[in-house]
Amino acid sequence: METLRTGFGLLEGPVWDPKLGLLFADAQLGGVHRLDLHGNVTTIVEHRRGIGGVVRHQAGGVIVSGRNIGYKGPLAPGTVVLLEKDPPNGVIGFNDITTDRAGRIYAGALGFLPTETELSGIGAEGKAAPLFLIDLDGSHRIVHPAIKLSNGMGFSPDGRLLYHADSGDRTVYVYDVKGDGSLSNRRSFASVRSGLPDGLAIDTDGSIWLAVAHAGQVVVFAADGSIIRQFDFPLPMTTSLCFGGEDMRDLYVVTGSDGTGRTDAGSIFRLRSDVPGLSISPARVAISSASQ
After folding, report:
1. Buried b / exposed e across 122-143, counting CB within 10 Å, b at 16+?
2. Can you tell me the mean pLDDT for 110-128?
3. What residue segments make up the domains of the chain, in order of their start?
4. In the CATH hierarchy, which fold is given to the domain comprising 2-291?
5. Tell me: the pLDDT tens digits for 264-274?
6. Order of all β-strands in the sheet with 171-177
7. pTM of this prediction?
């Protein structure tokens, strides 16, 4: 296990770009950053705080979550909003996002701000929020009505299953995925006894690698839900992870500062996996500058 960088607030949304390296957000201190192939860190999106998820767009730039789902990149100046929050209907923001093979975006809405204190908000009446799908034409629809605290998502190698961490239930659920991206047959896949299930990634064997926030762990589950192995980290706030590197066997794990007594302890760790991870397809949703 290597410590690549430290000194951040609350790291979230790591995603591997074969040309740029590791992209990640600092939800607390702001911005989307790049750890390039030479180990240098630069900022590619300035200032924006509260980002819980990042995906690449096929035309360049990134799509980020937070107060909305927004595109930032060369197709348009400023921020192009793809999905806006809707407080009157219980959507006050968005957390983790991911893409399927077609380039559609799945976005987990938030019914409360986790920064208000994750643990006290979990299970509160009326706090659940939907899971959205943004289609290629830019339209959106709800694919599950109520997630208590939406976190990491990832698809099985054949794309037929979607795994989704609900920190509010301390459970990872799995759905069947239809051809149009709709979801059905939601059922429990695995749960954690301590901490909260947070970001996740899938390898080519179909194993699920889960970051367990507040427990300082990454737990690996086989496709049948049994635990294969566990990795312990020196920082308790293990928030998310992704596979990367030339052979997709580098596992990048990002953390926050919670539980350290500091505000700048967020770090990036790297370890090697025996099995390559699945790459995450770039988003292919339509970007219209008129929606800025």
Report:
1. beeeebbbbbbbbbeeeebeeb
2. 63
3. 2-291
4. Neuraminidase (2.120.10)
5. 999 999 999 99
6. 150-155, 161-166, 171-177, 183-191
7. 0.95
